[in-house]
Amino acid sequence: MGRGGGAVRRCALLVTALALAGCAFRAAPPVLTEGADPNNLPFSNRAGEGFENRLAAMIAHDLGRQVRYVWWAQRRGYVRNTLGEKKCDIWPGVASGVEMVATTRPYYRSTYVFVTRADRPLDRLTLDDPRLRKLRVGVQMVGDDAMNTPPAHAMAARGMTDNVRGFMLYGDYAHPDPPAEIVRAVGDRRVDVAIVWGPLAGYFARKSPVPLRLEPVTPWLDDARWPMVYDISMGVRKDDPGLKQQVETILARRRSAIAQLLDRYGVPAAG
Fold first, then answer.
1. What is the pTM of this model?
2. Where are the beta strands (DSSP E) in 144-192?
3. Average pLDDT for residues 133-142, to the nearest whole number?
4. In this structure, are residues 201 and 115 in contact, taking their beta carbons and an 8 Å threshold?
5. φ, ψ for residue 109, nearest 5 deg
6. How far, CA to CA in Å, does 256 sit from each of 70, 250, 251?
7. More confident residue, 48 or 9
8. What is the mean pLDDT of residues 148-156?
9. Which of these, 69, 131, 180, 271, is most buried using a 10 Å CB contact count?
10. Which burial class, exposed, middle or buried, applies to 57 when counting CB atoms under 10 A from its CB (0-12, 13-18, 19+)?
11. Which CATH superfamily groups domain 31-108+230-264?
C-alpha cells in the first residue's frame, strides 16, 4: 500500500484508540463526594466503618455513583471548608434546618441520654432531679461560649458547675475513637453520670466492659434554643437542589434499611 496505506492504517489505529479511551471514560461511574471525619466513630472513619459511611455508600449505589471522601475533622469551620467550598456533595448527620446548607427531610431522630452504670441506683434521672447536684456529672463541651452543647447550657442554667466534669466534644484526636472517653469515664467511675448525644452513647455503651444504662434526658425541651432531641438530615449544597431531591427520594425508599442500620449501631430513637 506504500506510504499512503501506512498513514491510513496509523490514522485508523489512532481513531480506534481514541474511541476506546472515550468508551472507557464514559464507563467510569460518576462520583458522589462525601465530607467525613476520618476518626469519628460511630459516624465515620477512614476505614469506612461508621454508619454514615455505610449510608453514603447506600445512597451512592442507588445513584449509580461511587463514594469519594473529602476527609476533614469535625471542628468549627468544617462545613465552611467542605460544602461551603464546594469540595463535596453531601454531609451526613446534620441537624435539620441548619441555615448554612440545604437539608433533606430527616432520616432519624435521636436524643441526648443519661449514661449510668447499671449496677448503681441512678435510674429515672431528670435534669431537675435533686440527686444530680450530688453527683459527678460528665458533660460534652465545645468551649465556654454561647455555642456550647445543650447539656452544658442546661447544667449552667441550674447553677450546677462545681460538680460538672467537662469532656471535649471531639476528644483527644491523637487516639482512636476520641469522643468515647466520656462514656468510658462512667464505666470506670470517674464520673457518676454522663449526658451524651445518643448515637455516640449507644455505640460505645455496647462496647463497655461493664453494663451501662441509657435513658433519654428529660425535659427534652429545656430551652427552645437548646433542645435535647434533634431531627437529623443529610446536608447538601444549596446550589444543587436536584441532588437534594434525589437523596430525599432514596432516603424515603430506604427507610427500613436505614432503621436497621441505625439499630445495629445502637442509635437510640426519639419519638
1. 0.85
2. 164-168
3. 94
4. yes
5. -135, 125
6. 28, 11, 9
7. 48
8. 93
9. 180
10. middle
11. Periplasmic binding protein-like II (3.40.190.10)
